[in-house]
Specification:
By secondary structure, the chain is mainly β. 0% of the residues lie in helices and 44% in strands. The chain has a 5-stranded antiparallel β-sheet with strand order 4-3-6-13-8, with no helix packed on it. It has a 4-stranded antiparallel β-sheet with strand order 2-7-12-9, with no helix packed on it. Strand 3 and strand 4 form a beta hairpin. The two termini are 19 Å apart.
């Protein structure tokens, strides 16, 4: 479920959105991965010596054009490694994915324009108004998938991140 609402002038961003992950403890069949998604914006400050620093702060009011940094953490809450973890994250409908911004150490990243079929960006196609197929643009993406190449050990956390702009 998407927690963003898009009024014309401003948007209050809640810190969590629903995401999905697949990993289960083979013995019990219960899910081993707990997900948390946080929305933040970058704020630049200058110290007394004139040094500029940028830090992430919780997103509050977000107006059209604002870049939001979405961070997804996946924590293994079981006592065995979680293998073949996939994290599927919907891009909020009121937001446009920023090209080449998805990161995740040790993960293969793919995208979807419909939430069902995932592929590398070069392989994604969409239909225009006339019904003709064209290459998908980053603004066409609706979901991101991180497929972790390595297991997440007990008590360990994996992190993924991307940027999106409010339309």
């Amino acid at each position: 479920m998407n927690t963003l609402i898009h009024p014309k002038l401003a948007l209050s961003v809640l810190a969590f959105v629903a995401t999905g992950a697949w990993a289960a403890d083979g013995a019990t069949g219960r899910g081993c991965i707990e997900l948390k998604t946080v929305a933040e914006t970058e704020v630049e400050s200058v110290d007394a010596q004139g040094q500029r620093t940028t830090k992430l702060v919780p997103a509050g009011k977000v107006v059209p054009g604002t870049l939001v940094v979405w961070t997804v953490t996946a924590a293994n809450v079981c006592d065995k490694p979680a293998d073949k973890v996939q994290i599927d994250n919907p891009i909020p409908a009121q937001m446009s994915y920023v090209a080449d911004s998805a990161i995740g150490a040790g993960a293969d990243i793919s995208f979807s324009t419909d939430g069902r079929q995932f592929a590398d960006p070069a392989a994604l196609q969409v239909r225009d108004e006339a019904g003709n197929s064209r290459p998908a643009r980053s603004s066409d993406y609706t979901h991101i998938r991180w497929s972790l190449r390595n297991p997440i050990g007990p008590g360990q956390v994996a992190m993924a991140r991307y940027r999106a702009a409010l339309k």
